[in-house]
Design a protein that fits this description.
The protein has 323 residues and is α/β, with parallel strands linked by helices. It is built from eleven helices and eleven strands. The chain starts with a strand and ends with a helix. The site of 6-O-phosphono-beta-D-fructofuranose has 10 residues, from loops.
Length: 323
Amino acid sequence: MAIKRIGVLTSGGDAPGMNPCVRAIVRTALYRGVECFGIRRGYNGLISGDVLRLDEKNIGHIINRGGTILYTARSDEFMTEKGQEKAATTCKFLGLDSIIAIGGDGTFRGAAALSRFGINVICVPATIDNDVCCTNYSLGFDTAANTAIDCIDRLRDTMQSHERCSVVEVMGRNAGYLAMYVGLAVGATAVLVPEKEIDFDKDVIEKIRQARLNGFTHYMIVVAEGAGSASNIAAKIRDSIGLDPRVTVLGHIQRGGSPTARDRVNATKMGYLAVELLLSGKTNRVISTANGAFSDVDIQEGLNMKRNIQDFEVDVLAAMTGL
Ligand code: F6P
């Protein structure tokens, strides 16, 4: 069946890179003679028919903008079979041959549900958590990491001046990829991730003690939100060794900002590939990348995959924080 009209939506937590990806999808579609419609507010927009025609003009000058011009939302109604059926009916009414969904694993579960109602969906991984298991990289991760690194470098200046301990909480709902990567990049004294059992005395107190014995008088503890709250970690440090840590929760700052070059270029390649997959007749795929190469996997297979923090990164962190 020739693809003549596609829809594109962004869903779940927004991520820098979503706009460059929407741009690439629209430009590739138009280049291939395919109409492209934006669906606003994620799957809610698919249920309500909240669509707008996309062309070169309304995707102009968004390659460098964080967030998503299509808005995003988490949709309770779409979690129900009735909501999914309504969304599929809207697609058929609007004559949308396929949908490209940009988001994280929750978005992909929605796409798998939609495919059961006969709608072809291609998914693009985009979440700052980088916890989509079928790909090594999800859009937004590099921008969020660099935002967090910049914030923590600034924190280090004042912690050094006042010879203080800083406990910084980074995002990553249930994953420690952002915390691990940022922790290595800022030279953290300790990094706490949900994937690794925490022995507080060994993984935090002893590392602060060793740093102090080596002459350091300021300390940087990075904790993934899924591994605990920064305020609780700070209280435990205070109770244990009498320091008075300062707490910083970076929160949603990590979700904004102009996409880095890596996110812009990956978004452009993934958006292009999503349209090309559709035109080649592929159905219900997730775009994946590893070591700079791009591929695609079946949505359900991708959802069943598992991935974890590399033991290699854990070993490197141990060496960097062991002294
Ligand atoms: O999934 C991305 C993410 O930023 C998580 O890291 C974070 O826990 C969550 O979204 C926050 O969700 P919300 O924006 O709905 O508060």
